[in-house]
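Help needed: design a sequence for this.
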C-alpha cells in the first residue's frame, strides 16, 4: 500500500483594509458605491468632485464598483477587481477613458501610502483629464519637477514643505495651472487633475488623513 501526503496550502491571512471612492467625472450623476457587489452600508452617493470617507473591508479577493444612484443593476458601471493586502489604503476613481480611445466609463485604481512624515506634507498626483492624451507634469511653484504621468497613472507620494504651492503643466497648456492646496505637515494628500478640455486643467485636493 502506498500512502500519499498532500499538504494543504496555508490559508492566506485576511484583515482590515480601507477603500474610498472619488467621483472624477464631471458629467456624471451621483454614484452609489459597492464592495463585492454589496452597496456600502449607510453611504451617501457622491457627486462629481466629491470624495467618500474611507470604508473598512477585508483584504484578499475584492471588487469595487460604482453605479448610478439607486440603479443597483448598474454595479458593473465601472469597477476594479483584484487581490488586496492587509493594511492597504485604496482610492477608486470614477471617470472616462481617453476620448482618443473611444470614450467609455472606467474606474482607475490607486494605492495610497499610509505612512506620514512629521515635518512634511506628502502629495501624490493622478492625471484624470480624459480629453488630454499627453502627460501632465506635476511641479512645485518654483519649477521643481516632482513627476509627470499619462492618463490614469498615479505618482508615488512626494514629501514637500508645508504651504508649498503646486504647478501643473502639459504641452497643450499655454498657461500653467498654479494652486495653493494649503498643505499641512504630517498629512498625506491625493491631488487629481481633470478638466473640461485638453487645454484646461482643474485640480482637486483629497486629504487622506
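Sure. Designed sequence:
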Amino acid at each position: 500500500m502506498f500512502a500519499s501526503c498532500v499538504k494543504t496550502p496555508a490559508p492566506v491571512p485576511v484583515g482590515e483594509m480601507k477603500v474610498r471612492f472619488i467621483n472624477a467625472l464631471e458629467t456624471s450623476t451621483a454614484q452609489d458605491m459597492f464592495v463585492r457587489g454589496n452597496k456600502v452600508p449607510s453611504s451617501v452617493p457622491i457627486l462629481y468632485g466629491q470624495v467618500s470617507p474611507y470604508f473598512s473591508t477585508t483584504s484578499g479577493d475584492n471588487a469595487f464598483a460604482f453605479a448610478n444612484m439607486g440603479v443597483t443593476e448598474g454595479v458593473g458601471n465601472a469597477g476594479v477587481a483584484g487581490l488586496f493586502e492587509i493594511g492597504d489604503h485604496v482610492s477608486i476613481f470614477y471617470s472616462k477613458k481617453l476620448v482618443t480611445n473611444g470614450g467609455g466609463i472606467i474606474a482607475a485604481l490607486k494605492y495610497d501610502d499610509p505612512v506620514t512624515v512629521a515635518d512634511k506634507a506628502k502629495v501624490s498626483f493622478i492625471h484624470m483629464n480624459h480629453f488630454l492624451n499627453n502627460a501632465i507634469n506635476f511641479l512645485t511653484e518654483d519649477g521643481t519637477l516632482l513627476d509627470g504621468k499619462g492618463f490614469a497613472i498615479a505618482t508615488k507620494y512626494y514629501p514637500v514643505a508645508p504651504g508649498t504651492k503646486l504647478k501643473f503643466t502639459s504641452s497643450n497648456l499655454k498657461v500653467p495651472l498654479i494652486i495653493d492646496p494649503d498643505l499641512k505637515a504630517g498629512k498625506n494628500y491625493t491631488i487629481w487633475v481633470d478638466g473640461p478640455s485638453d487645454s484646461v486643467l482643474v485640480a482637486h485636493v483629497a486629504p487622506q488623513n
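The radius of gyration is 19 Å.
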